[in-house]
Write a structure and sequence with these properties.
This protein is of the alpha/beta class. The chain folds into four domains: 93 residues; 332 residues; 235 residues, Four Helix Bundle (Hemerythrin (Met), subunit A); 40 residues, no CATH class. It is built from 24 helices and twelve strands. The strands form two sheets. Strands 4-3-5-2-6-1-7-8-9 form a nine-stranded mixed beta sheet. A three-stranded antiparallel beta sheet has the order 10-11-12. Helix 9 links the parallel strand 7 and strand 8. The two termini are 29 Å apart.
Length: 708
């Protein structure tokens, strides 16, 4: 190993002892009684072995993930920090983009493309043929249809597995990357992972991964990201300033980030310039706006992360709680302003020129660009993560042994609980009584299903009410955003006049004069086109955010989880032998993990272009002002119609998805219960022998626990 610490060597000895002595001994003792339990311990051993082999590799890299929701600015961040502002990674990821984009060191610039395996693609095609109304099925249909219309030879491409090409320039590398990950490219739907190799010594020993949004509607890519995060060491979590740590982000932090593995979490406020624009009318200067915005966002982060740390502490996960407590102070990033600070205004892109026009509301913003676009704190954080690689990996490896022992202990404990339950049921019952008990349990499950139908019905009712309320609010907002205020401008004109120099008492001055110059202020009324464009942008952003919050607030996953468990508790006697709280909790969590909340993104480009094609700057003519106001009102109205239609489409889709969750919950309860009681009935055929075998098994389990 590259990490030469005595503590690591000690852990190595403990791990080898677990793998060569402890686990084999437990498996040997369990196998005669329960092959299923023995296989469970084998799985625990294999997971530890895999983790250890991962760390024992001489080339073990520090895995750094860039994480956030869709369009949080992850690719832009990496283009800025890793590629010096050059557009190497594609931006504005679409649902067709590859799962992961890794950046690693190699002597030559190269790209490595990993396609789906034939088995994975067959599953995608099976999903596409499904009649279920879920995001997974819907997106599988889209991917399969995209491949079908492209006309490419799927089997031959998938058979290649992985391809690698070298490049002499970043431009050629970016072009190749776009070929495999860009929107509407023929290969894109078939790509699972892309690795960019860069001849950059600073990347040695690390692997930086640009992940799809953790709320990506394509389940396979979200799962791929979560699989990677399980072996990830450091996470840079990006949250855009205009939607900073909203309900969607909190949900991602709570339920999508892995519970183990991540040693360090770095919080970044991305698109900080958007946050500045939100404060433009509340501050007297750009410096004041930046200071107030940072203070407001930092306070919000502290509140959210302290609450989450307390929640993790209450759940008994002290390590995860510590990660959140150490991540209360965010770093601020505006890739746009950083790139602007590195160039002359004459070289600004169209987007940069528009932002410059916006910031001119504060006066001369150019002097503030170096400070606002400063990325050195983020570079320092990344440098610190790399410098502390050994310490980070050491901490992870030190946790392996106690974590593995706890997993084995909990596994055996659950086996004890289940075995004792079976012994009690066999001791007190027979085949007939067990069948009676099975029917009683089945009735209880049907009662749970009825309660579930009632409860999910309240959610759908709440959702319909929320839809009506939100559309009313959005309609009111559209009227507000559909007009802009008239501004008053001042033009200074220099004028001249002739002034007589004649004096009656000085005849020689008669008829002489001189010119005097003076200034004249002329006030005029105008409309600023930039105000109209900002109204369209803000309405689109606020509408998208409001809709996502409406879905999140309506579902309330934590509350739903509690309700599912409460339904079980209310219908099962918690003190009874047939009650298994751990199982029901697992079932509830599994069901909730399958809930995919819609992600709403509204493209406002066409609505912006309806104005920019006709007007720019200050519009003074009264007729033109009237026409601009009318065009803005029309653009906002059409935008509202598009948003309303999108929202209306997503509501029944989510309702259908919840119906599936509801059905699966009840069906899984029935399936598990019936399988359990069928085994018990089989054991009742020779009750005495069955009890003896189970008692012997219980003794073995008790002895194993005492050795801990």
């Amino acid at each position: 190993m590259s990490i030469e610490f005595s503590a690591v060597k000690e852990q190595e000895r403990h791990i080898n002892a677990l793998l060569s002595e402890v686990y084999p001994s437990v498996i040997t003792e369990l196998a005669p009684h329960s092959e299923e339990a023995a296989n469970g311990v084998r799985a625990l051993a294999e997971e530890l072995r895999r983790q250890w082999e991962d760390f024992a590799r001489t080339d073990r890299k520090l895995n750094i993930a860039v994480v956030g929701r869709v369009k949080a600015g992850k690719s832009t961040f990496l283009n800025t920090v890793i590629f010096g502002g050059r557009q190497v990674l594609p931006q504005a990821f679409t649902p067709k983009t590859a799962s992961l984009t890794k950046i690693e060191y190699a002597p030559e610039n190269a790209i490595e493309v990993e396609f789906y395996t034939p088995d994975e693609w067959r599953q995608m095609e099976n999903d596409a043929r499904s009649s279920a109304c879920t995001d997974t099925v819907r997106m599988a249909k889209e991917l399969v249809e995209a491949v079908r219309t492209s006309g490419i030879a799927v089997s031959s491409i998938l058979a290649e597995g992985t391809i690698r090409r070298t490049f002499s320039s970043e431009e050629a590398l970016a072009a190749a990357l776009d070929q495999y990950t860009g929107a509407d490219r023929e290969y894109t739907p078939l790509v699972k992972c892309v690795t960019l190799y860069q001849n950059n010594p600073e990347l040695e020993g690390i692997s930086i991964v640009d992940t799809p949004g953790l709320n990506d509607p394509v389940y396979s890519r979200t799962q791929r990201t979560r699989d990677f995060l399980a072996s990830c060491d450091v996470v840079f979590f990006l949250s855009p300033a205009s939607q900073f740590l909203d309900a969607g982000d909190v949900e991602l932090l709570q339920n999508q980030l892995p519970t183990k593995g991540v040693a360090r979490l770095c919080l970044l406020v991305s698109r900080f310039d958007d946050g500045l624009m939100d404060a433009i009318y509340d501050a007297d200067s750009l410096a004041e706006a930046a200071r107030d915005t940072k203070k407001r966002l930092a306070q919000h982060a502290k509140k959210i992360f302290r609450k989450e740390a307390d929640r993790q502490t209450g759940a008994g996960d002290a390590a995860r709680a510590a990660i959140f407590r150490n991540c209360e102070d965010p770093l601020f990033l505006s890739s746009l302003l950083h790139n602007m600070s590195e160039k002359s205004p004459i070289d600004y892109t169209e987007i940069e020129r528009k932002r410059a026009d916006d910031l001119n509301e504060y006066g001369d913003f150019q002097q503030h660009l170096p400070e606002l676009g400063d990325i050195s704190p983020i570079e320092n954080e990344l440098t610190s993560c790399i410098a502390e690689k050994d310490a980070t990996l050491l901490q992870k490896i030190v946790d392996f042994v106690p974590r593995s022992k706890d997993a084995l202990h909990n596994f055996i404990k659950n086996e004890q609980t289940e075995t004792n339950r079976h012994i009690n049921l066999l001791t007190t019952g027979d085949g007939a009584s067990l069948e009676q008990e099975r029917r009683r349990m089945e009735q209880r499950i049907h009662e749970i299903e009825a309660r579930l139908t009632e409860y999910f019905g309240t959610i759908t009712t709440k959702m319909e009410r929320a839809k009506i309320d939100l559309l009313r609010v959005l309609r009111e907002d559209s009227r507000e955003y559909g007009t802009i205020a008239t501004k008053t401008g001042v033009e200074i004109e220099e004028r001249e006049r002739r002034v007589s120099d004649s004096k009656w008492y000085k005849p020689w001055t008669w008829g002489k004069s001189h010119t005097e110059y003076y200034t004249y202020e002329r006030r005029y009324s105008y409309l600023d086109v930039n105000d109209a464009l900002e109204n369209i942008r803000h309405f689109g952003l606020e509408a998208s955010s409001s809709i996502e919050r409406a879905f999140s607030d309506t579902i309330e996953l934590q509350s739903l989880k509690q309700q599912l468990l409460r339904l079980v508790v209310d219908n099962f006697d918690a003190g009874a032998e047939d009650y298994d709280p751990a199982y029901f909790r697992l079932l509830a969590e599994r069901s909730l993990n399958n809930i995919e909340l819609p992600v709403i993104h509204i493209n406002v480009d066409s609505y912006l272009s309806s104005l920019t094609g006709k007007w720019s700057g200050e519009v003074r003519d009264a007729s033109d002002r009237s026409s601009l106001q009318a065009a803005l009102a029309q653009a906002i109205s059409h935008l509202f119609d598009a948003i309303s239609a999108r929202f209306t489409e997503e509501v029944p889709r989510l309702k259908a998805h919840l119906d599936t969750i509801q059905d699966n919950f009840g069906n899984e309860l029935l399936r598990s219960m019936n399988a359990d009681y069928e085994k018990l009935k089989s054991d009742c055929a020779d009750k005495k022998r069955s009890i003896e075998k189970l008692s012997a098994y219980a003794t073995v389990l008790e002895e194993l626990q005492t050795r801990r």
